[in-house]
Design a protein that fits this description.
By secondary structure, the protein is of the alpha/beta class. It folds into two domains: 128 residues, no CATH class; 148 residues, Rossmann fold. It contains eight helices and 16 strands. Helix 1 crosses helix 8, helix 4 packs across helix 7 and helix 7 runs parallel beside helix 8.
Length: 289
């Protein structure tokens, strides 16, 4: 991808989504280039992003109107071919007898007169290959609690088990809940234990009190925030991830000396398709969920 001096982007989503968006934006920049964003504050608060100079406006309800106008102006400028543009079109997905429209895996790019300016339209840009060139990393301060916790455990391999419940209990995609069964996590643990019989499992979850009693032998880590939870994932040798983008990045940044178990199809597990398209990485060990 060509380097630009200035990139504009209005972000959406929580931390895991913001990491994918940042990785995508990374591909358009060189050291010193500027990225003007809104809604990327979770990522910027927890991570050092070294390649571009990032100017972010915190997302809020009060700024939603301004955000919509920025998108309209950006789309108009790219439609008139005044500046370069990138977008992620929606596509139709067929699940059973139903059809759903959602962001696909393709990216469309247009060229404008002012090639030093790029507008990146709304999208999540969740392509596994983007992570390989990302220039950001977790701030080390967020690993301190995890290091202290690990220092209390016996020597030997460690693997995290990240169980996301919380908001997934109410959210639906393709007409059903994306929640993974606890059986998936148990089978994932067994797959890792086959590689390292002495592995110690560390549970990270937004519903620890419900999950911990069902997973025998796990150690429970309670980070003070999402960044400390993420820090624990990065210090482990492998893990069982949830079908969340936060969990995905935890698997990417962990040591990967042990398998990183992922559900086949990710958010579309059990439906015979993959969603988001392109989310499955080569370093994953995929199992049915």
């Amino acid at each position: 991808m060509s380097a630009y001096r200035t990139v504009y982007f209005t972000g959406d989503g929580r931390l895991g989504n913001q990491l994918f968006q940042a990785a995508f934006l990374d591909g358009f920049t060189e050291a010193g280039d500027k990225i003007y964003t809104t809604g990327m504050e979770e990522m910027l608060e927890g991570f050092d992003w070294t390649r571009p100079v990032v100017v972010n406006r915190r997302d809020s309800r009060a700024h939603q109107s301004a955000k919509r106008w920025i998108r309209r102006l950006g789309r108009l400028a790219t439609k008139l071919r005044l500046i370069d543009g990138v977008s992620q079109p929606r596509q139709m997905f067929t699940v059973g007898r139903e059809r759903y429209k959602a962001h696909g895996g393709s990216v469309e790019r247009t060229r404008g007169l002012l090639s030093s300016v790029l507008y990146v339209d709304k999208g999540y840009y969740q392509d596994a290959e983007l992570a390989n060139t990302a220039s950001f990393k977790l701030k080390d301060v967020h690993c301190h609690a995890a290091r202290d916790f690990l220092s209390t455990l016996p020597a030997g391999p460690k693997a995290f088990v990240h169980v996301r419940r919380g908001d997934y209990a109410k959210w639906t995609i393709f007409g059903r809940s994306p929640l993974l069964s606890l059986d998936y996590f148990k089978r994932g643990m067994e797959a890792i234990r086959a590689h390292a019989p002495d592995v110690q499992f560390i549970l990270i979850s937004d519903d620890v009190n419900t999950v911990a009693p069902t997973l025998e032998g796990v150690r429970v880590f309670r980070g003070a925030n999402v960044y400390e939870d993420f820090g624990m994932m990065t210090l482990c040798d492998g893990g069982v991830i949830s079908n969340s983008t936060l969990s995905w990045w935890g698997g990417f940044f962990c040591r990967r000396a042990l398998p990183v178990i992922s559900p086949k199809g990710f958010l579309a597990h059990g439906l015979g398709i993959e969603y988001p398209v392109g989310i499955t990485a080569k370093w994953m060990t995929v199992i049915e969920a």
